[in-house]
Design brief:
By secondary structure, the protein is mostly helical. The chain is built from four helices and no strands. Helix 1 packs across helix 4 (99-114). The structure holds heme C.
Length: 118
Amino acid sequence: MKSPLRIQTHPNLKIVFLTLLLVFSLVAPVWAADLEKGAQVFDTTCAGCHINGGNIVRRGKTLKQKALERNGYATVEAIATIVANGKANMSAYKERLTPEEIENVAHYVLQRALENWQ
Ligand code: HEC
């Protein structure tokens, strides 16, 4: 016989589920691609001085989580700013990298710091 309740709730749940699935499948690859592109920028542009998240020029100014926090660089915005404008012996990259590349490499640095560059 008819069971209107089941027939009505089932499609709704399906729509909610499919929407969530769509959102995650759209967002996840973008996030992964950002980090992958950030890694490429890091390897070609930053690793010369910051290999393994260190700093061969200024020992205390590494990209490790503790140093980033101590020196005020533990956010994507702060890292993007120092990359764009440079500071002391670190040159500015706003002429050489696109805003997107700067954003990607900042995400990458923060992510690696959270993983302790392991
Ligand atoms: C020529 C060497 C060199 C290169 C290449 C370089 N940096 Fe730096 N970086 C430095 C130096 C030196 C400092 C310390 C600046 C200061 O005196 O505060 C620094 C500081 C930083 C800091 C702040 C760290 C802290 O704990 O204070 C971040 C974040 C950073 N660099 C990210 C990057 C990224 C990302 C790139 C690549 C786009 C890059 N750097 C390329 C030399 C370099």
